[in-house]
Amino acid sequence: MMRTMDGSVWVGLAGTVIGGGLSIWASVVAQKRQTKATRDLRIEEKAEAAVEEAITQLYVIKRRAREHPQDRSGVSTWEQELSQLAVQMEPTVLRIRNKELRERIEEVLGYMGMIHDLTDYPVHRGSLMLPSEVCSYGLECLGAAVRGEPLPAPTASIRRAREIDAFIREQMAIAREEAER
Fold it and tell me: Residues 121-131: pLDDT tens digits?
């Protein structure tokens, strides 16, 4: 004999199905949130590691910048080494999430590519210590980021490097204009 289910059984069955569905949905949502939180944490850890690696690399550049050769024959090699160290650091800098910090470190590294101009006192009023001082500014910025502090204001050395860079760009523009005439 076949019996029919009364209404309370159907209501109970419907409640069980709906409750089970909501439970599955809640589990999926919670899992997605956890996955996102884990991914975000991993990205943040990589960014922090990039800043710490950048500190180490920039310190090496700063130390090498202080080792200006006494004789002119070693200057070219020294300049090339500083430029190469700066280029090697670029992939690390790309992983820095803070845009303002990344731009400041890229600026510092850019000056290592124009090391001759930074140290050429007679022409650009540079100094042998300017490259090292520019690196110190970069290290101050990286240190502030690690400590969660605001980035420092530009130092006298970074302002001087900017002046030299602007002067060189101006001279290059004048030279191009003259060449085009």
Answer: 666 666 888 99
* Length of the chain counted residue by residue: 181
Q: CB-hemisphere CA count at 13 Å for 150?
A: 3
Place of tokens 């700063």: 62
Other beta carbons within 10 angstroms of residue 114's beta carbon come to 19
Helices (runs of H) and strands (runs of E) counted in the chain: 7, 0
3-state DSSP assignment of residue 35: helix
- Residue 168 tokens read as 């060189």
Residue 151 exposed, middle or buried by CB count within 10 Å (0-12, 13-18, 19+): middle
Q: Is the pTM of this model over 0.90?
A: no
Task: Find out whether 131 and 121 touch, Cβ atoms under 8 Å.
Answer: no
- Token output for 98: 């803070």
Res 53: pLDDT: 93
In single-letter form, the type of residue at position 119 comes to T
- Does residue 142 contact residue 101 with C-beta atoms inside 8 Å? yes
